[in-house]
């Protein structure tokens, strides 16, 4: 697996961001189409539409356990291309789906393939960067990645105006082809030859065990999963809160969604500028404590206004909350990956699987509690952020000893940054 010349920094960030953008587009582009899909397939219960997200996230979470270890054995490029082919098959099936069940199967297939983009984007970044440099790249990637949620609902709405929610899946198909050609032409293999691992159950199990027993890795994995649960809670309920039930914004829903996404993008840019000076631990802890305080504010608004606060108050609180939330996730991811760079594929798989499953399950459970008010959202934010803070307190107790990489070398002491 010969490593070729790497693309310039800006192009590298753009390619990786596009890979991650494919994941975001697969979720956010469909939010305005929920009512159209529900009407086409005659779905009586509006809450069932959230299965469009959870079916994708279920396949996405499970397959992450496969792509990373395989990429540690045969390289990143081949595995990514295989995953994108599977994603393409899911997009095609969705375009021609004739019932809701088939659409859910197609979404699960998309998730299976899309998981390769998620796992390998993180592994490739870790192949090239470490520490605060990795956190900076993660933040810049997330900033560009968040541009997709800003425009995705608007483009989804535009496709609905053109005539069909199926056009949204055609746009996903177009984007995956762009990723295939750009990555194929410009990105060389990044797996370090000395880190190549024979694909076997024992190797995969030992890699997962190492991540699970390395305190900075497992603690930040759990913290990121809880933060992801907050994000999935919002994504699952955003359409009902803004468009149909509470604020009834109708066609203005994409604008409200975009404004909150812009707050998240701004936070990612700020994180990329501040992380070299303040560090990942400081920023992630500040962001999570601030988010917990904003969850209290949201719950207070819900109680004062019977679950339906004025749009201005709710929008401002959500914008600040999601700004703070976006200071946590890139740093949690970097802190989790930092001690396990020599098994980046396996580590990214395990971390991605755990965080995605946590996000999907927690978001679905809280989403099912939606009752036409923001109370479930606020309670979900408060509960998950409280658990996250407890995990962070546990992670800061002492310095973790990281097992030595396979093949020799002494164990190292990692303070988490």
TrEMBL record:
Major facilitator superfamily (MFS) profile domain segment(s): 12-397
Pfam families reported for this sequence: MFS_1
Major localization listed first in the record, in broad terms: membrane
Gene3D superfamilies according to UniProt: Multidrug resistance protein D (1.20.1720.10)
Membrane-spanning parts: 12-31, 51-67, 79-98, 104-125, 137-161, 167-185, 218-237, 249-270, 282-305, 311-332, 344-367, 373-394
Compartments reported by the entry: Cell inner membrane; Cell membrane
NCBIfam families: efflux_Bcr_CflA
Coiled-coil regions listed in the entry: none
Membrane topology: Multi-pass membrane protein
This protein's UniProt keywords: Cell inner membrane, Cell membrane, Membrane, Transmembrane, Transmembrane helix, Transport
Protein name: Bcr/CflA family efflux transporter
Family: Belongs to the major facilitator superfamily. Bcr/CmlA family.
Species of the source: Labrys miyagiensis
InterPro entries recorded: Efflux_drug-R_Bcr/CmlA, MFS, MFS_dom, MFS_trans_sf
PANTHER family according to UniProt: MAJOR FACILITATOR SUPERFAMILY, POLYAMINE TRANSPORTER 2-RELATED
